Amino acid sequence: MAIEEQLEHLAQLKSRALLGGGPERIEAQHKRGKLTARERIDTLLDPGSFEEIDALAVHQEDAENGERFYGDAVVTGWGKIEGRRVCLFAQDFTVFGGSLGEVVGEKITKMMDLAMKTGVPVIGLNDSGGARIQEGVGSLAGYGDIFHRNVRASGVIPQISVIMGPCAGGAVYSPALTDFIFMVEGTSQMFLTGPDVIQSVTGEVTTMEDLGGAHSHTTKSGVAHFSVNGEVECLEEVRRLFSYIPANNMDDPPYVDTGDAVDRRLDDILSVVPATSANPYDVRDVIERLVDNGEFMEVHEFFAQNIVVGFCRVGGYSVGIVANQPMYLGGVLDIDSSRKAARFVRFCDAFNIPIVTLVDVPGFLPGVSQEYGGIIAHGAKLVYAYSAATVPKVTVILRKAFGGAYDAMGAKHLGADVNYAWGGAAIAVMAGSQAVNIINRREIVSASDPEAERARLVAEYQERLEHPYIAAAKGYVDDVIDPRDTRIKVGHALEILRSKAESQPPKKHGNIPL
Length: 514
Ligand code: HXC
Fold this sequence. Notes:
Elements: H1 3-18, H2 23-31, H3 37-44, E1 51-53, E2 74-81, E3 84-91, H4 102-118, E4 122-126, H5 137-153, E5 159-163, E6 166-168, H6 173-177, E7 180-184, E8 189-191, H7 195-202, H8 208-212, H9 214-219, E9 226-228, H10 231-242, H11 269-272, H12 283-290, E10 296-299, E11 307-314, E12 317-324, H13 335-350, E13 355-361, H14 368-372, H15 375-388, E14 393-402, H16 403-408, E15 418-422, E16 426-428, H17 432-439, H18 441-446, H19 450-465, H20 469-473, E17 479-481, H21 486-497
Parallel strand pairs: 3-4, 4-5, 5-7, 6-8, 7-9, 12-13, 13-14, 14-15, 14-16, 15-17
Antiparallel strand pairs: 1-2, 2-3, 10-11, 11-12
Helix pairs in contact: 4-5, 13-15, 17-19
Bound molecules: hexanoyl-coenzyme A.
C-alpha cells in the first residue's frame, strides 16, 4: 500500500475511534445531560496535552449487529493539569453503555501500570453499565485486575474517581478503593444493588437517585467526598484538588506563591470565637483567617459536619486541616466524624501533606447507639491515624479539649510535633459542670444551698484544673498563645518541621481497627 493510502487508512480508523458508539448515541448521551468521554477529557486536561493510547484496540466479540468499536468503551492515556502529569481513563457510555469487558479492563490496567511505573496520579472518569454481560467472567476478571492495582497503588500514587453516570454492582469497589470520589448531582449514581433488586429482596421502595445519587453519598453514607452541580464544574473541582497533592508518595505537593505573609496577625479572631465554651461558632471562620488568602477546599463538606477537614496552603505549602466544628453537635467526636477525620489524616500522611489540627471538642458522644455502632473501634481509627502519621503535625487547642478526645485530636502524646493552646483554653478529663457531680456529690447533696455550692465548686474546679497551664507546665503544650498569633505560630512551626524525618518501626503493616 502506498504511503498516502496507509495514512488515509489510519485517519479513517482514528476518526472511527473518535466517534465512539456513533453520532446517535452521542446525541443520546447529550440528551441525558452528560458530556462524552472525550469532551470530559478535554475539559479536565490542559488544552492539547492529551496523549491517547489503545485507541485502536477492539473488543473481542462483535456486537450482535456486527458493529465493531475502535477503542472499545473506554478512552485511556495521559495528559497534564496545570502542567503536571496525570494518567487517566474515561469510560465511554456510547459504546455498550461504557460496560467493562476484557479489552476495557486491559486498557485501564495498562494505563494504571504506566502510572505506577512513572509515579503519576490516576484519575478515572466513570460512566458505565458495569460488567459487560456478553463477556461473562472476562468482565469480572477485568474488575478484579483493576481492584488489585487500586490496592497496590494506594498510598503510592493519588487516585481520584469521578462518577459521571451509573456505577453499579461490584464496579463501585474500584472508586471505593481510591482516595477521593467526586459525584455529579442528578446524573451519577453508585449502588451495589439497584432499586428493583432491593424491592424484590427487602420490599423497600426507592429510586436510583435516592439510593445512590450524589446527595445520598455525600450526606448519608459518606462514600463520596464531593458533590458538584454540573460536569464542567465537577472537573474544575478535580483540577483544584489536584493542585494540593503531590504526584506520588516520594514527591512533595506543589509550592504556590500565594502572596500571603505567614507573619499576619488574626486581628479579629476574638470576635469570631465566643469566649463561653458552650456557645457555637463556625470553625470555618477560623480556618479562613488562618490559611493563605482564606482559600480552603473542604473535603466531605456535607458528611459528619461536626468535624471539618480539607486542604489549604500556609506560606504557600499544602496543609491538611482537621477541626472540630462547634456549630454541629457541639463539635463532639462520634462514629462518622472519627471515620472521616481518620481517613483524611491517612491520606495526608501517605502523601507528605502536613496536618494542622484545630481542637474545640467536648469529648466523644455518649449513647447506646454510638456504643452499639462501634464508637470504640471507630474512635480508635482516629487515634491510630494520628499516631501512625509521620508528617509534620501541629495542633492548636482553641477553647477546650476534654477527655479521650483531647488525646484523639492530635495530642502531643500521639506524636504531634508542636502543640499550642489559646490563653483561655480548658484542658481536663471533663468540664467542671460534670466533674463536680462525680467528685463532689456528697458536698453538694449535704449543702444548705446545693445549687450555690455546686456553682462554687465548679468555679473552684475551673480555677484549679480547667486551664492550659498544667499542660504547659508538663510540656504537653509547647506554649500558651494569644489567639491573634495563631497563623504566625502555626506558620513558623510548619517551617521548622519542613525537614522533619521520622519513620515507623519496621513491620509488614499495622493492623488499623478497620
Ligand atoms: C453490556 C450494556 C450494559 C452491560 C448497558 N449496556 N449496560 N451492554 N453490558 N452491563 C448497553 C445497552 O444494551 C445499550 O446498548 C447501551 O448500553 C445503553 O444502555 P441503556 O439501557 O439504553 O441506557 P440507560 O437507559 O441510560 O440505562 C443505563 C443503565 C442500564 C442503568 C446502566 O443500561 C442498566 O441497568 N444496565 C445493566 C446494569 C447492570 O446490571 N450491570 C451489571 C452490574 S453487576 P445500545 O446498543 O442500545 O446502545 C456488575 C458486576 C461487577 O457490574 C463485578 C465486579 C466484581
